[in-house]
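Record 1 of the preview.
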Amino acid sequence: MRLPRPSRRAVLAGAAAAAAVTAVPFTQGRAQAAPVAAPAYRWRNAAIGGTGFITGVLFHPSVRGLAYARTDIGGAYRWEDRTARWVPLNDDLGWDDWNLLGVEAMAVDPAHPNRLYLALGTYTQSWAGNGAVLRSEDRGATWARTDLTVKLGANEDGRGTGERLLVDPCDSDTLWLGTRHDGLLKSTDRGATWAPATGFPGSPKADGQGVTFLVAAGRTVYAGWADGDDTLYRTTDGTTWKPVPGRPSGAAARVPIRAAYDRYTRELYVTYADAPGPNGQMDGSVHKLRTVNGKWTEVTPAKPGGTAPDGSPDTFGYGGVAVDARRPGTVVVSTNNRWAAVDTVYRSTDAGRTWTSLKDSAVLDVSETPYLKWGADAPKFGWWIQALALDPYDSKHIVYGTGATLYGTRDLKNWAPQIRGLEETAVIQLVSPPVGKAHLISANGDIGVMYHDSLTASPSRGLAAPPVFGSATGLAQAAARPSYVVRAGWGDHGNGAFSNDGGQTWAPFAAQPDLAKEAPGPIATNTDGSVLLWVFAHWDGTKHPAYRSTDNGATWSEVTSFPKGATPVADPADPTRFYAYDTDTGTLLASTDSGRTFTARASGLPAGDSQYQLVAAPGRSGDLWLSAKEAGLHRSTDGGARFTRVDSCRSSHTLGFGKAARGASYPAIYMVGATEGFNAVHRSDDEGKTWVRINDDRHQWGWIGKTITGDPRVYGRVYLGTNGRGIQYGEPV
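->
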């Protein structure tokens, strides 16, 4: 299954987060009044396992069992060998720092095992903030931070290239940082301050990649360069940089992707492609440079351009490369963007003269993360393999990242996800059923809908299929008939589906409007499941009308009075009622004829605010809550005829309900927003009169303004969707 990136979910959420951040007139972490703290909450991930692009893995050269991983939108992780789990290192980054959840590069110091450096910054667009460098003396448990004056692009093309950050091999106080558009930076005080590196000859392009990797070869530092004829520079004194002569030429060696140095043979292996990737690579090659005499030798395992098994062109580039620290001449490289014939990892034990494809003998066990079958009978070896690492203490321990997971082996044959603890899902919508085995159903970017029969293990049913979706766009459950669930999203064989067993099994709608394939959007069902409303909206912002079905998706008719692009909301108690909020005009519209027609009710509500959410309180008819970013929170108890501002809330981004507190008659309310000082996760047990903050400064997860819901069966439990750190769920300790 092809998962294109930058994914819609990541880019759009990033832009939305940027708009949200600039609109909120207060700053996380500054000296301001904070809400009263609630009793301590324990926060954990609802397990899925990966689901995002692992862009880099780095084994520590001096410490057995210590490794780090970076992701494009979900922060960095440290591998704990004792527990065989990844530990997230950047959950403390708050709302204003959402752009720092993308990790451009990481570096360790071989001479100081506890030191770790991260270069953070997700986007280089004008709406994104500048990057930052974090430095730690305790393996990422605590950080010191330096804000940069340049932007980094951890979720842009080229994010799977080599580490752009390096501790100088001659001086632990000196660090190098390669950027995309601002050349090479240097620090001489362990990352506390940065300045342009003098003597670096590369001239960056505004739309280029700049430095693609930095690697030490003995006392020499090499820099991959993607913006000119010279693709490799080096310095032997830390001051003077020169092009490496005799470099490979041609389209197959246009962009240097990654490099690894064999200290025994004194050879530098470099992978190349005709584009930075991970998308769009059609050609590539592998070369090695004998550093003692400057001789280049091509060692490409397989030339792109043949014919794949299905008869299509076998086009691809090369991505990851790693050398064996124990065995001279042993090296592994990966193909990238090889869709028809499927990507592989090649291994050589004779310095690249001959190669073996590890895919050909691989046995893949995905029982721990069944979704990796993508609706097929068996998983495939991988795609987007640019992160590739070889354990310096175990020659048969190889790991490689894909667009969804991290596979590992310890015998070169049997592979399984080595992904526990690493969760990168961007979450679109959450539903917590009132009955049934699952306490949670999730709609997600890239992996569609998941039925969580356990919160501590990846969903045993894998993807909700058929049909198999990419990114989900809508999810709804009939309030009085919870066995009936509907979903919408981007799929190759249908864009909408229904379930009659609470989301365990699915069937595609018998038909769908023409717009569904090109612009699937949110979907709603009334309380008894007899009526569906499906709205269509392009990712570019183009809005379309809603369509209605009364026969479970067999036929559809346009609802001309529905406000284009709005999200339909079903009344939880009355099957004849639907609601919609027209953000263009600030008007609440309602239907009392099961969605056939909509008429305006309350007007003068916040208008022009694309970040809003209309939520109906469970078990009540006409009890509506409007969450509208900087305009705060508004409530109607008469079906939208009148709304009253909730004075206890300054800013509201997403809202949900859960089981009422003991002795309370109204459901608990969960909100991401600000009551006094800054955006955080809150709970109210008294209909929004007062709030308590239930997350803390160690658990913030960047931008979390998309979706939240409480559990209707467990008081205090809340499910929170993040943009790159999966589904977080919290419970009172």
